[in-house]
């Protein structure tokens, strides 16, 4: 029997690799300089049903997050509270439709918990759990960083006692330049994707993941740029909380 | 110790009693009259990665729908028909009652079945319009709805978001070459979908023998029955869904039908405005 | 879950402070490890690594022809799965292993695919249609700490041992492509494994950090940093874990430096071991009896 051979239309979008990521004027494709964030929008209190919630936009990257708890757990007794994080990317969030369950979501949930748990005063709610759920509505790069910040804002909005807010920032190397807050195209073709979460008042890195073959000196630069980026973001988060809660 | 309790405490401990103080006065705790739906906000096209998208808010209940289009081979039995795959998710972030993704599986599938029945059985969308080449290539639309906040009546929010997203869909112009490979025409035009009619839902509940329009989650929980009526913009009844609960009499049903009919025009207008605002 | 008493914990922490660990190592000493390759006949490549005779992992690599990732149609694909056997530790019973499996496979995926340390383009057969899929299946048989490094060493060794069958792509008269796999078992190609990294795990205990923690030390650690180093001395992936303490950025730089130094030494050691394994006659293998 003759079976028609149909290929998805998607492979055509392969041509999305630009010939140059950094223009002659030192600007990126979207007109940003190397260490410039995209336009950031933050809000808290989006989900009224939740104890606390937040929404973050890094241009087209959109993440919504809500925090519930502390609620009781069925786990064995623990004199410290627990933080549970769930990170999920919506099926329509990227150019390629995503399958419902993916390994990546579980991996990122763990990264998110590691990034946030250090900032939470767990001694304040023994034998209970705080749940933080993040849903990425659109992923145009740096989704994990956005989710970490969104989660930190949601925890603050929920009135959970925190040692510090957690800022987060991604960076990547394209055309032998390091750029921060990469878009999805930069993220796809760049080398050395790093995501760093940092508490600026305590000057501690809470979470750091990197993948990509880079030199030691580049890595040092990566970390420094990310920590700077995290500082900028946590200032912004503080401002957001101040304006939203003094309204 | 003072034994006075604030309104919030009474609301938590004796919710039904709390409502019984309001309803006879013809008003609800959120300030609405009994027959008034919440403020409905519809926006379209906010997701750039989806071929069509919409966000619908009914008060604080909100649903986001994204539609992704892909090319596939049609079923042998319907060589000219495209496909529509619908999924509705109530993620744990939307409500304190859902703690895991698996907690809402039943609710999800019940919403999916209801919405799919309305879309396909009342012929909202011509699946033939999704045909690219007879018996070799058709579009498949993946319609995914996520409820971002569940404060009651998520069916209405979900259905409205699906309809708005469908009207917002822009399919790229494609061509099929001799090797049966489908590719996007560069610089080609985009094609919108024509909906045959707009089925507009409205849900009701009976609480303490009073009829409430567009219930919140608190009202849904306390109610003796909930039901949904769907009329389209041509004034035809598309669906009537009352899954168990206390009986209702004909007078109430007639009243509800009229309320639903009166609402259709307003909602269709909102949808069109949302789509035009994006253009 | 394995638990240790508070006084035992204090003993370990104090020892580390004085640069003397319970097994006699100093803070930056690595345990001795053994590598055996080609143990599982049904795989294209396999390796078993033991760290100090206690941490025991087995990695099997299979290659199959399949569809490429639509995002990268001109590259081969990688599938990593890690399974922590309940026999390795009571911690891995029931759902307990799930999180460990997820972070271990994430680390290997980052090291191999996201870091692009394997030439994935060479595993493409026909762009957008057919490519080699490399399945890396890891089994943790026994755990005495530092599964991360043991798995990374075993994965590199298994990939080094992997034989990819030679294939021939032919075009039929109707324009369809057909793939013929050579049926001669000695007709194979090797993967280029020179730039595949291995990881070095540093654990922060108190205000100090140690390398290659044992399972008891893992119970005292506040945070863990796993850093992957390749033979050029480049850093290929980093994964931080542990939820009770953050790391100061300047301290982090120091950790990077140490990991790099240790990683390069380990890599040299591993390369020598692998060469020896490769030149050994297979009939002399002792395998699991060792």
From TrEMBL, chain A:
Nucleotide-binding listed as a keyword: no
Exoribonuclease phosphorolytic domain location: 36-161, 164-222
Location in or out of the cell: Cytoplasm; Nucleus
Keywords: Cytoplasm, Exosome, Nucleus, RNA-binding, rRNA processing
GO MF, one annotated term: RNA binding
Pfam families: RNase_PH, RNase_PH_C
Predominant localisation class: cytoplasm
Disordered: annotated span: 1-25
PANTHER family: EXOSOME COMPLEX COMPONENT (PTHR11953), EXOSOME COMPLEX COMPONENT MTR3 (PTHR11953:SF2)
Similarity comment: Belongs to the RNase PH family.
Name of protein: Exosome complex protein MTR3
From TrEMBL, chain B:
Pfam families in the cross-refs: RNase_PH, RNase_PH_C
Record GO terms (molecular function): mRNA 3'-UTR AU-rich region binding
Chief localisation class: cytoplasm
GO cellular component, one term: nuclear exosome (RNase complex)
Superkingdom, natural source: Eukaryota
InterPro entries: ExoRNase_PH_dom1, ExoRNase_PH_dom2, ExoRNase_PH_dom2_sf, Exosome_comp_Rrp42_subfam, PNPase/RNase_PH_dom_sf, Ribosomal_Su5_D2-typ_SF, Rrp43
GO biological process: exonucleolytic trimming to generate mature 3'-end of 5.8S rRNA from tricistronic rRNA transcript (SSU-rRNA, 5.8S rRNA, LSU-rRNA); nuclear mRNA surveillance; nuclear polyadenylation-dependent rRNA catabolic process; rRNA catabolic process; TRAMP-dependent tRNA surveillance pathway; U1 snRNA 3'-end processing; U4 snRNA 3'-end processing; U5 snRNA 3'-end processing
Subcellular location(s) of the protein: Cytoplasm; Nucleus, Nucleolus
Keyword annotations of the record: Cytoplasm, Exosome, Nucleus, RNA-binding, rRNA processing
Keyword Transferase carried by entry: no
Domain Exoribonuclease phosphorolytic positions: 38-172, 197-256
UniProt similarity note: Belongs to the RNase PH family.
Protein name: Ribosomal RNA-processing protein 43
Species this protein is from: Acrasis kona
TrEMBL record, chain C:
Protein name per the record: Ribosomal RNA-processing protein 42
GO BP term, pick one: U5 snRNA 3'-end processing
Domain of life: Eukaryota
Domain Exoribonuclease phosphorolytic as annotated: residue spans: 30-165, 196-261
Organism: Acrasis kona
Keywords: Cytoplasm, Exosome
Location in the cell: Cytoplasm; Nucleus, Nucleolus
Keyword Metal-binding: no
InterPro entries assigned to the protein according to its UniProt record, in alphabetical order: ExoRNase_PH_dom1, ExoRNase_PH_dom2, ExoRNase_PH_dom2_sf, Exosome_comp_Rrp42_subfam, PNPase/RNase_PH_dom_sf, Ribosomal_Su5_D2-typ_SF
């Amino acid at each position: 029997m003759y079976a028609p051979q149909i290929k998805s239309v998607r492979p055509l979008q392969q041509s999305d690799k630009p010939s140059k990521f950094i223009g002659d004027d030192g600007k990126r494709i979207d007109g940003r300089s190397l260490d410039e964030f995209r336009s950031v929008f933050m809000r808290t209190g989006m989900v009224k049903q939740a104890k606390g919630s937040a929404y973050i936009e890094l241009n087209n990257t959109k993440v919504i997050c809500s925090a519930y708890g502390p609620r009781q757990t069925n786990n064995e007794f623990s004199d410290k509270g627990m933080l549970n994080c769930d990170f999920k990317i919506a099926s329509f969030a990227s150019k390629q439709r995503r399958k419902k369950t993916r390994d990546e979501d579980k991996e990122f949930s763990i990264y998110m918990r590691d990034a946030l748990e250090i900032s939470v005063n767990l001694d304040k709610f023994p034998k209970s759990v705080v749940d933080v759920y993040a849903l990425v509505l659109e992923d145009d790069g740096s989704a994990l960083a956005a989710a970490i910040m969104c989660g930190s804002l949601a925890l603050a909005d929920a009135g959970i006692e925190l040692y510090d807010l957690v800022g987060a920032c991604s960076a990547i190397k394209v055309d032998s330049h390091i750029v921060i807050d990469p878009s999805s195209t930069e993220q796809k073709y760049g080398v050395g994707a790093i995501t760093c979460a940092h508490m600026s008042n305590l000057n501690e890195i809470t979470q750091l993941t990197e993948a990509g073959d880079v030199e030691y000196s580049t890595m040092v630069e990566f970390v420094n740029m990310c920590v700077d980026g995290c500082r900028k973001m946590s200032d912004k988060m503080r401002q957001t909380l101040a304006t939203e809660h003094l309204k | 110790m003072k034994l006075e309790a604030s309104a919030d405490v009474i609301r938590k401990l004796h919710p039904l009693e709390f409502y019984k103080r309001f309803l006879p006065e013809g008003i609800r705790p959120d300030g609405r009259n009994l027959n008034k739906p919440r403020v409905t906000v519809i926006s379209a096209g906010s997701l750039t990665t989806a071929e069509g998208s919409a966000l619908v808010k009914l008060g604080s209940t909100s649903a986001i729908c994204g539609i992704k289009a892909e090319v596939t081979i049609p079923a042998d039995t319907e060589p000219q028909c495209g496909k529509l795959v619908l999924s509705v998710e109530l993620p744990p972030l939307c409500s304190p009652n859902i703690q895991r993704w698996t907690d809402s599986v039943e609710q999800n599938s019940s919403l999916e079945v209801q919405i799919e029945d309305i879309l396909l059985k009342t012929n909202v969308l011509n699946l033939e319009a999704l045909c690219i080449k007879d018996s070799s290539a058709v579009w498949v639309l993946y319609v995914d709805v996520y409820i971002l906040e569940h404060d009651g009546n998520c069916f209405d929010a979900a259905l409205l978001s699906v309809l708005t997203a469908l009207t917002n869909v822009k399919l790229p112009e494609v061509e099929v070459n001799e090797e049966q490979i489908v590719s996007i025409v560069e610089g080609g035009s985009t094609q919108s979908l024509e909906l045959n009619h707009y089925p507009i839902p409205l849900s009701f509940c009976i609480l303490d023998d009073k009829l409430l329009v567009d219930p919140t989650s608190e009202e849904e929980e306390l109610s003796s029955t909930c039901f949904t009526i769907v009329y389209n913009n041509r004034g035809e009844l598309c669906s009537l869904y009352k899954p168990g609960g206390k009986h209702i009499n004909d007078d109430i049903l007639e009243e509800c039908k009229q309320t639903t009919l009166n609402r259709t025009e307003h909602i269709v207008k909102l949808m069109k405005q949302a789509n035009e605002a994006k253009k | 879950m394995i638990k240790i008493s508070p006084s035992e914990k204090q003993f370990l922490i104090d020892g580390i402070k004085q640069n003397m660990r319970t097994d006699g190592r100093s803070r930056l000493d690595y345990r001795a490890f053994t590598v055996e390759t080609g143990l599982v006949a049904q795989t294209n490549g396999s390796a078993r690594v033991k760290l100090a005779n206690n941490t025991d992992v087995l990695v099997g690599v299979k290659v199959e022809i399949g569809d490429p990732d639509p995002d990268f149609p001109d590259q081969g694909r990688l599938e990593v799965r890690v399974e922590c056997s309940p026999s390795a530790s009571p911690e891995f019973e029931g759902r307990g292993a799930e999180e460990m499996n997820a972070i271990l496979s994430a680390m290997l995926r980052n090291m191999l695919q996201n870091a692009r340390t394997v030439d994935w383009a060479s595993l493409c057969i026909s762009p957008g249609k057919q490519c080699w899929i490399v399945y890396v299946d890891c089994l943790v048989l026994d755990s005495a700490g530092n599964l991360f490094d043991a798995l990374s060493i075993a994965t590199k060794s298994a990939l080094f041992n992997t034989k990819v069958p030679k294939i021939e792509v032919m075009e039929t008269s109707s324009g369809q492509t057909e793939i013929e796999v050579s049926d001669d078992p000695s007709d194979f190609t090797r993967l280029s494994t020179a730039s595949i990294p291995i990881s070095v795990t540093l654990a922060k205990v108190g205000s100090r950090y140690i390398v290659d923690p044992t399972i008891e030390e893992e119970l005292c650690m506040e945070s863990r940093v796993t850093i992957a180093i390749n033979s050029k001395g480049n850093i290929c992936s980093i994964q931080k874990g542990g939820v009770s303490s953050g790391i100061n950025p300047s301290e982090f730089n120091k950790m990077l430096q140490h990991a790099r130094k240790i990683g390069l030494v380990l890599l040299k050691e591993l390369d020598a071991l692998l060469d020896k394994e490769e030149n050994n006659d297979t009939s002399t293998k002792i395998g699991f009896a060792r």
